[in-house]
Amino acid sequence: MLTRRVIACLDVSAGRVVKGVQFVDLIDAGDPAALAVRHAAGGADEIVFLDITATHEKRALLLDAVRRAAEKIFIPLTVGGGIRSLDDALLVFDAGADKVSINSAALGRPELITEIGSRFGEQAVVIAIDGRRNSGAPETAKVYVSGGRKATGRTVVTWAREAESRGAGEILLTSMDSDGMRSGFDCELTAAVNEAVQIPIIASGGAGNVEHFAEVFTRGHADAALAASIFHFGISDARSLKEELAALGLPMRLPC
Amino acid sequence: MNHGKTVVIDYEAGNLNSVCKALRMTGADVVVTADPEALRGAARIVLPGVGHFSSTNCLLESGMGDALRERVLNGVPFLGICVGLQWLFVGSTEAPEMRGLGIFPAMCERFSTSVKSPHVGWNSLEAVGNSRLLEGLPPSSYVYFTHSYRAPRINATTTVTNYGGEFSAVIEQGNWMAVQFHPEKSGAVGLKILENFMRASSC
């Protein structure tokens, strides 16, 4: 049976993890490669590196981290942040990433989805969508860029459909309403996007406890859930989280 | 333990990094090539694959198909991954105008619309025959899949996976071995499968 995925996300800036898990017994808690190895050993189903500064000068530091992580982990590794062209994607794949996550660059030039997909396969293209609906209906949720500061005028559902038709392999959907609140994923928005497309949905934003994951997998129909800080509320690793979800009847990759 | 070269066939589709790294983890001496001549010295041959069935087009045109068939019939173990499994079939509805190598007389088809496509994530392996590749692994081990087309169950299928019905997850017939999932992305289970392939002597 296909399991639901728990994805560990590391926010990286200038080659260092800037938030997320702080393992006390790690000598270098800020090294993305060391943390990726730790997450993989801890039972995460995939790893995402999100370069949150993505400035040109600091790019080499990210690529170096990707290269070192890819040497040691043998589960899927996605890299996002600052990928604006096929050449940018090429560098990231070359460093060892399996998928790239693209956000504003795809909105600016949707052909990029097809360009990367036809060179590396559609499975390698994840389209990240930041959505906000305030208290509106899920179908009215709008796409935002620049970390949620700039509205694009497009609805999440129509952009997800277009991304799919241009060859996106997965949608990484972040609810700007829920992000950082730890009050649960936006299950309604996730379900609405799930209804609109055939490709897998990764839900992001709002994880606060185990039940939140269970809800987004059941009510939200998410195929995967991403968390930057699942360990901040008393869970030691992805394995324990997955064991608790399995006990609630969800199909999880265990043992892992 | 691994004498000789493991030749990974490059057909300019996707990313060979992960496969090569995982093979090297198991001790393989990896050579990447697009040249059919380079198969001559191979102790083992791997055909990775991500992407569209049509990307295999150049394999028949370049003579890689004939060279490969000749080597494997002469006892060189072969491992096809993902599209590298599907290419062993007559063809795929993904690119109906193209032929595969035709080792197995069936067609690959898209998943039914009753399930999401692509099939992405960790799914379990269910044995339906004796498998050299899965030796030593617990039943129903999880591996990582990402694909929209799948091969039907055939006589040479040793393992199936269920997703909108069963499909071939592992095929083994003599020295032809192939997996639909990505062992290079399937953690410890995947590395064990590659290790088993590296250990497989010709038969």
Description:
- The complex is a heterodimer of chains A (about 260) and B (about 200).
- Chain A is of the alpha/beta class.
- Chain A has one domain: Aldolase class I (TIM Barrel), CATH 3.20.20.70.
- Chain A has nine helices and eleven strands.
- In chain A, helix 2 runs parallel beside helix 3.
- Chain A is globular, with a radius of gyration of 17 Å.
- Chain B has about 200 residues and is an alpha/beta fold.
- Chain B has a single domain, classed as Rossmann fold (3-Layer(aba) Sandwich), CATH 3.40.50.
- Chain B has five helices and 13 strands.
- In chain B, strands 2-1-3-4-13-12-11-8 form an eight-stranded mixed beta sheet, sandwiched between helices.
- In chain B, strand 11 and strand 12 form a beta hairpin.
- Chain B is globular.
- At the A-B interface, helix 5 of A face helix 1, strand 7, strand 9 and helix 5 of B.
What secondary-structure arrangement, pairings included, does this model have?
The complex is a heterodimer of chains A (256) and B (203).
Chain A: E1 5-13, E2 16-19, H1 32-41, E3 46-51, H2 59-72, E4 77-80, H3 86-95, E5 99-102, H4 104-108, H5 111-120, E6 125-132, E7 142-145, E8 150-155, H6 156-165, E9 170-175, H7 187-196, E10 201-204, H8 210-218, E11 224-227, H9 238-247
Parallel strand pairs in A: 1-3, 1-11, 3-4, 4-5, 5-6, 6-9, 9-10, 10-11
Antiparallel strand pairs in A: 1-2, 6-7, 7-8
Chain B: E1 5-9, H1 17-25, E2 29-33, E3 42-47, H2 57-61, H3 64-73, E4 78-81, H4 83-86, E5 89-92, E6 104-110, E7 119-124, E8 126-127, E9 142-147, E10 149-150, E11 157-162, E12 166-173, E13 176-179, H5 187-199
